[in-house]
Amino acid sequence: MIEFQNVTKRYPESGEALSDVSFRIERGELAFLTGHSGAGKSTLLRLIPAFERPSRGDIILDGVHVPKLNNRQIPHLRRKLGLIFQDYRLLNDRSVFENVALPLHITGHHPHDVGRRVRAALDKVGLLKKEKRLPMALSGGEQQRVGIARAIVHKPQLILADEPTGNLDAELSEEIMRMFQDFNAVGVTVLIASHDQHLVHRFSQRTLRLEHGRLAGDA
Amino acid sequence: MAQRRQNAPRQSLFRQPFAQGRTLKERLQAYGSLQVYSLKASFSRIWETPIASSLTILVVAIALALPASFSALIDNARQPLEALDTTSQISLFLKPELSNEAARKLTERLKKNPRLFGAILMTKEDGLKELTAFSGFQDALAALTSNPLPAVIILRPVATDATSVTQLLNELRTLPESDRVQFDDEWLKKLRALLAITERCVVAFSLLLGFGVLFIVGNTIRLELQNRREEIVVSKILGATNGFIRRPFIHSGFWYAFLGALLALIVADLLILGVKGPADELAALYGSPYRLAFLSLSSTAVLLGAAILLGIVGAWIVVARFLREIDPA
């Protein structure tokens, strides 16, 4: 599903963020990406939806060479992904419903379809009753669940989460992780970046460890 | 890493949507949904900021009302001038002692002249009748015991350039029946030159004010973009195309320009309505059928079209710049 081939990402200001990284994640896998802060986890995740292009190497998503996509093709790649961020990246002047509906509006779904799908996604994260609220009126855990609902509303085959529990306490973190396990159980490929060693250990899944931009472990 | 994948899928999930994958009907439906979503979004944006939006529309209207009013003025001035154009004619006044019979003979002779389009004789009696009918001198004319008017032959020259006209006039002057020859187109030329200058000025002003509209709309859209920066960045992250982001702002530009132009047209026509009463009265006093006209359909269409174009172009430029700015999002 995801294949990195000798990927290097170099920034003119700060040098190499990723050095010669190669790995492969199969369809239906759930994997963690760990490492201290600044090890290159976020950089690696940013390369997959083509927020940035690698300096060297190739990234292949299900047969598509991501660095070779042109600017017109990139939006269509992103629509096939479910992205989750540490700071949720919700629109604070829109209701929970509108936030979750955004990916469907972007792809031009029919309004009837939108309502049905948004409620199905909100139901999965247990926020069906709060669709009219503004994100600011929700707790951190709830906001991240809105972010997850938005990431799954269009039924992506691949979910990328960058420190999804970074702002949450242990209990909420585990709840969120269990949600990812549920998605994985129905065949969705999931890649989660987290620096929380305890949490990662408890789930005993495949773990890719980055150190100073190099892949230091794969277990 | 070059090893073959064991359970490689038959079809790529990511390759699919790039080109085909969706039927034409599905794509048209998606396009329709996107248009409706964008129209709603742009309207609600204008609706959510009523003061800022109406200020923009008002400024657009003021910028457009000026050229609209001027062009109405010119349209109105051109109408009587075009009527005058066909009357670029020579008046050959005949000696008062000349009989109507002799006058008719001369007219027939002049009609055969190839340098003239025709000749129309106005006898003393015809002149008196016309004067009585069209001016306000009925009572004074009725008091006259004899007809003071000379007979006149109205001629229309074929060539209207200065040399041929001068030559023709000189020939006419030497006719024994001729008393006085008059060709007045100098003032018409001056008037036309004046109108041309005014027209040029209006075009220049209109261009200037058109740029004004471009900048007003552009600036308003720029502020909207700044306010919605986070929304745009998130949308791009979620896979929005530049077209998706651009569309509602283009629609906003359209609305600002269209509503502004509509308001400008109303203002211009109200101005004409205000002047129309006294102007028509004046024309009636001169016995002229001329009436002040509202903005013509073509002027209205040109103004609306130009305004909409400016609004859309203004919005497009600003959005394109913004999208380049945030591109590595």
Total E-strand runs of chain B: 4
Domain tally of chain B: 2
Order of adjacent strands in the largest pleated sheet of chain A: 6-7-8-3-9-10
Q: What portion of residues of chain B is helical? A: 55-70%
The coarse overall form of chain B would be elongated
Unreliable runs of chain A, pLDDT <50, ≥5 residues? Answer: none
Order of helices and strands of chain A: EEEHEEHEHHHEHEHEE
Average of pLDDT of chain B: 82
So how many helices of chain A? Answer: 7
Content of β-strand of chain A: 25-35%
Order of helices and strands of chain B: HHEHEHHEHEHHHH
Q: How many helices of chain B in DSSP terms?
A: 10
Describe this protein's structure.
The complex is a heterodimer of chains A (219) and B (329). Chain A is of the alpha/beta class. In chain A, 33% of the residues lie in helices and 27% in strands. Chain A contains seven helices and ten strands. Chain A has a six-stranded mixed β-sheet with strand order 6-7-8-3-9-10, sandwiched between helices. In chain A, strand 4 (56-61) and strand 5 form a beta hairpin. The longest helix of chain A has 16 residues, at 170-185. Chain A starts with a strand and ends with a strand. Chain B has 329 residues and is of the alpha+beta class. Chain B has two domains: 37-84 and 189-325, no CATH class; 89-184, 2-Layer Sandwich (Alpha-Beta Plaits). Helices cover 68% and strands 7% of the residues of chain B. Chain B has helices spanning 24-48, 50-85, 100-111, 124-134, 138-142, 162-173, 186-227, 229-237, 242-285, 297-325, and strands spanning 90-94, 116-122, 152-157, 178-183. A four-stranded antiparallel β-sheet of chain B has the order 2-3-1-4. Chain B is elongated, with a radius of gyration of 34 Å. Classes of the chains: A alpha/beta (219), B alpha+beta (329). The A-B interface holds A 3, 5, 22, 24, 26-27, 49, 51-52, 61-64, 72-73, 75-81, 83, 89-91, 94, 102-103, 105-111, 150, 157 and B 1, 5, 7, 9, 12-15, 17-18, 29-34, 36-37, 230-231, 234-241, 244, 328-329.
